[in-house]
Amino acid sequence: MKPSSISAAGEKTFGGSRFDVMESLSKWAFRLPIIFMVVFFALPMALTVVFSVFERTMFWMEPGFSLLAYENFFFSARLNNFLSSMYYSLISVVICFVLGFPIAVFLRKSVPQAAQHRVVLLFILPFMVSEIIRVFALRPVLQRNGLVNSTLESLGLINEPITALLYTHTGVIIGEVMSFLPFIVFSGFLAMEAVPKYIFEVCDDLGAGTVRRFIDVILPLAAPGIFAGCVFIFVNGLGVALLPNILGGAGAVNAGLIATQAIAALDFPLAMAVSGIMMTTLMGLLYIGHRLFDLTKILSPIN
């Protein structure tokens, strides 16, 4: 065999092996996130349900099958607190929708396309600040002699401070709206981004009023994104224990705070049961939303 042919064969073999290595690495680059999510998300969620039926010990829990944790949840004041937190989270969802979704529609319809993503970024910037700082910063604003009461008194709109703004359910709702409002703006904008701009022009040409256009055209097209944002706000309103801890009073309790209190009392099966109930609630909402709106359409262009 000639040296030249050997060299060519060697280069071909080396090139082929290098290509195989790169192809293998590219496959693992896509597999690693899936493995990570399975190991550190799906598996812990499944174990949460398993641990919720373990038997409680003095400092931990041991394998067994006991429904005592669920009994302690469903046949106590914890269930009422959970249902109450669902009600107030639903109020927060409605307020966020009323305030946030019109912003998303305005961005899509009236702001030049080159500047739309920059404006959306302004609503994401607050999340670069720690959540505990953002929530705690509301206390000087909402307290008895805070910014809101001082401003209203100076304008002559009230004669005495409003005490319902802090350490009440109202304070928790305000905290949830301020914390999660950008999510409905962002998800609503993603849904509206899939809607061609000429649809607004067609509605104007046909003489459709603002209300008719909003109900008959915009809402059906943006329904998947709206639902996804609303579910995110609702579930976080149930689970973030910081909000009732910092802004709520004695009766302001959500599922996250119930789980935190159970952990502090070393009742780990109860904490697991509460987490499992929240997870079941989330999965149920996502299933209903997918059946109604097909959530895969959030990023799909509208034909």
UniProtKB/TrEMBL annotation:
CDD domains: TM_PBP2. PROSITE patterns: ABC_TM1 (PS50928). It is found in: Cell membrane. InterPro entries: MetI-like, MetI-like_sf. The keyword RNA-binding does not apply. Signal peptide: none annotated. The chain crosses the membrane at residues 28-54, 86-107, 119-142, 162-190, 221-243, 263-288. Belongs to the binding-protein-dependent transport system permease family. CysTW subfamily. PANTHER family: INNER MEMBRANE ABC TRANSPORTER PERMEASE PROTEIN YDCU-RELATED, INNER MEMBRANE ABC TRANSPORTER PERMEASE PROTEIN YDCU-RELATED-RELATED. This is ABC transporter permease. It comes from Pseudahrensia aquimaris.
